[in-house]
Amino acid sequence: MKRINSLKRIGLLMTNIGHTSIYFNNGCVAVTLLHLSETYIVDVKKQDKCGYSSVILGTGDFKNIAKPQLEYLKKKGINNRCKLYESRLIDLSGIECGKKVGVNHFIVGQYLDVTSYSIGKGFAGVMKRHNFSGLRASHGVSVAHRSQGSTGQCQDPGRVFKGKKMAGHLGSSRVTVQNMKILSIDHENSIIAVKGNNVPGFKSSYVFVRDAVKKPLHKDVPFPVGLLLDTNDGNASGLVS
């Protein structure tokens, strides 16, 4: 399947701030809360110069930022010590550097794909890592009940094949959870609530959120990005598409 939806609009870097529940008429639904820090359009990369089209965004305000990056942000007119990341786009029309991106980039009822790194669990055995059943509890097994058992064959081929499920490092791998539905959006606090609690990563970790590639794009989403209007205009949640 071609990843068409993910190239129509930008993806955003958000913070996983925890889990809660939302009550509806038909019951209670578990949700994960994702927070969007101050995010700016820092720069654009164009096809003729870079070989592809993308938008460079900056989010948050960090203490330890390299001096070259600070000078780069200063040159672009951004005072925040942003964490920079990149999101590809097919069409760069309507993109203006220095503009602030808002949580109104998403709407209720839309489906998202969320990417992050899973929680690291160190070195794990085969029962925890690959869901092995373990060895028998009696009849000859001695001090090896959680082991994997034999891994090789007889004289032919006489070796262990590559890719054999064994004990090893578990977690800290890039994981994408698809088709997560937005149930609620708090525009004032820049928080969205997505259905379920299976967002990868730990609390306060960053997650990359983009339009779902296996679901049709909602007809009401702003293109190519939802921007915040100037706060001096008295409206900080307007759509610019």
Automatic annotation (TrEMBL):
PROSITE patterns: RIBOSOMAL_L3 (PS00474). Keywords: Methylation, Ribonucleoprotein, Ribosomal protein, RNA-binding, rRNA-binding. Coiled coil: none annotated. Pfam families: Ribosomal_L3. One of its GO terms (cellular component) is ribosome. InterPro entries: Ribosomal_uL3, Ribosomal_uL3_bac/org-type, Ribosomal_uL3_CS, Transl_B-barrel_sf. Belongs to the universal ribosomal protein uL3 family. This is 50S ribosomal protein L3. It comes from Candidatus Wolbachia massiliensis.
